[in-house]
From TrEMBL:
Keyword Membrane tagged: yes
Domain of life where this protein originates: Bacteria
Protein name: Yip1 domain-containing protein
Keywords: Membrane, Transmembrane, Transmembrane helix
Amino acid sequence: MSGPDRPAKPKRAVRNGRNIIRGLLLLGRGRAEGFECFEGDRDAFLAGLSPPIGFLLVLAALLLMQRPTLPAVILLLALVCAVLLPPVISHTMARLWKRSEFWPRYATASLWSVWLILPAYLPAMLVTAILLQMGVSHAVAGRLIVLLLGAYLLWLQWFMAWKGLSISRLKAGVTVLALTVGSMLVGTLMQPLLPLVMAP
């Protein structure tokens, strides 16, 4: 089916580390062509999912060796849900907006986009240093940095939903709201588990 409001199929991209880095740097600066650096197939999605899952496996091994308790197991399962929930929510929203064909590439790019917090942290630290030199307290400067980083990540999610799923700005905002609420719910469920896991 084709028509004026039916988006064209995304172009294929060569999947390698250099393309992923280039795509992230483009998307991080609000350049939609960064999506072309990612593939939209199952292997690409699983490759994007492998770093957080691998980290959780290592964390699980370390945690269960030290604290083989039921709260620790539940916490690890909640962390797995925290990793898998955003793709599930975004897939649901893509189907709602009738943009399912764009979801695989968008989801792959979104999985890798969490690493953009690292380059974003550098200018945030520079701003912190400037504020401290101006006499702003550490507490105030810290809160401001958290707000700036949070605002940037929200903007990045919105931009990627807008361009990656080829939807309107408003629909992108609704998608980000759904993702944020889902993450907050998982965080709320995990919070009471932390004292139980860390208790001596």
